[in-house]
Amino acid sequence: MTAIQPVLERAVAAGDLPYVVAMAARSDRILFQGACGAEADTVFRIYSMTKAIGALAAMLLIDRGQLSLDTPVAELLPEWDDLQVLEGFDGDVPRLRRPRTVATVRHLATHTSGLEYDHWCPPALRYAQLTGTPLPPSGRMESLRFPLMFDPGTRWGYGMSTDWLGRVVEAVDGRRIDRFCRDEIFAPLGLQDTRFEPDGLAHRLRPVFRRSRDGGLREVAIAPPAQPEFYGMGHALYSTAADYLRFLRLILNRGTLDGTRLLSPAAVTALCADQMRGLAVPPMRSVMPQVSADVELFPGMRITHGFAFPRYEAAVPGRRGAGSLGWAGICNTHYWIDPGRNVAAVLMTQLLPFAEPRMLRVYDAYERAVYAAL
């Protein structure tokens, strides 16, 4: 594992990353922990790495028989029935219609519900600009009225489905999602530094940087809103590399961690197995280059989606194996799980735009160094 730390140090020295924390593990032990330009216990705004935790929350209820993958969303949240599909625009007037299919819990978890973020969806961006409707990262209830971009179950589109999934958990369980996660996930797994508000952790937060046109880095102010009207399970968490790796080890251990069973093995299979029913994850073409580059992590590979994670259906030579899982947060916090090789890892910084080339080159080098050391 001695070859991994130099990868991090070169990345920071070259200005590829402002700072970085990285960890890798087997199911039963830590393999590597390193940092450069930051402390190992740095707290990160993990944004969309929250989504897998949201899926875990819903799977806990499914595992207990309180919910089904195929439960219609509107049965639990009648307000879902108010959402219409955006067909286009008549001038500057959105043209909307009723959905032709019924959205289910499975659709929310796999991002096939019809909801899309404006970062990668021109119609969603135009709708937001014309109507002033906020998106869920605002933390405002009004954002949950954002329309569908397609009929549920007809294709994949990356968006705020997991925010609705968190609302499903609240409807079934009765607790607010932050309390549910604290009681049912964070405490049992020993995630002491994972929370929705950074109270007591602010001194361990590091700033977010943005790549400037000249290739340099400048600090920007960005964070999930404090005390929002609702906590979005698509974006709202703060965490550390060590905490998130404990969650990944839960998956490698088929639902147990340090003697605590949180999920049945069957539930872990459902979290990880392809739940797309023939659909696949397409490349994500950015319409906000200051926020995200185009996202196509492994060009030409078939990518599907489990209940909790994107799933990479082919092996990458020198990197992850077929059937590996993984995703990231918009500020370039990344993770993967390779059940076949019994390894999981995180690579975390705070940098925009997402998936920019220099970041991805560091990710490639880090992942290759991890596998070379196994």
CATH homologous superfamily annotation of the largest domain: DD-peptidase/beta-lactamase superfamily
Please compute the radius of gyration using only Cα atoms.
20 Å
Helix fraction by DSSP (H/I, runs of at least 4): 25-40%
Q: According to CATH, what is the topology of the largest domain?
A: Beta-lactamase
Low-confidence stretches: none
Topology, number of strands: 16
Terminal Cα span? 8 Å
Q: What is the element string, with H for helices and E for strands?
A: HEEEHHEEHHHHEEEHEEHEEEEEEH
How many structural domains does the protein architecture include?
2
Overall shape: it is globular
Number of helices: 10
Which range does the strand content fall in? Answer: 15-25%
**Integer average pLDDT:** 97
Q: Identify the CATH architecture of the largest domain.
A: 3-Layer(aba) Sandwich
Broad structural category? alpha+beta
Q: What can be said about the biggest beta sheet?
A: 7 strands, antiparallel
CATH class of the largest domain: Alpha Beta
Main-sheet strand order equals 2-1-15-14-13-12-11
Domain Beta-lactamase-related: 8-358
Organism: Pseudooceanicola lipolyticus
InterPro entries: Beta-lactam-related (IPR001466), Beta-lactam/transpept-like (IPR012338), Diverse_Enzym_Activities (IPR050789)
Pfam families: Beta-lactamase (PF00144)
